[in-house]
Amino acid sequence: MYIMAIGWGYVALMMALAEATNANGSILGAMLTFVCYGLMPVGLLLYVLGRPARRRRREQQAASVEPDAGGHAPGAAEPGSVAPVRKEP
Fold first, then answer.
1. Contact 34, 12 (CB under 8 A)
2. Which long-range contacts (CB under 8 A, 24 or more apart) does 11-14 make?
3. R_g over Cα of the chain
4. Mean pLDDT of residues grouped by 10 in the chain (89 residues)?
5. What local confidence, expressed as pLDDT, does residue 72 receive?
């Protein structure tokens, strides 16, 4: 996956270099060429192809979270703490 990104980045860099050194080219055009033909497509490619790895990592993190072993009901106040004040309905 990374070899494609490196190869495409090289091609985009060469395109930008050709734009910058051309008689009618400019540095701004070279930067836009590199961003629009290089960084954006490579970033999108890495994001899309990295989705399965992100999913596996998220599932592993969810499986490693242990349930609360405190013995209290969720949201129950600790002994000695002040209960929240609520308005009467």
1. yes
2. 11/38, 12/37, 12/38, 12/39, 12/42, 13/38
3. 27
4. 90 95 92 95 91 89 70 60 70
5. 59
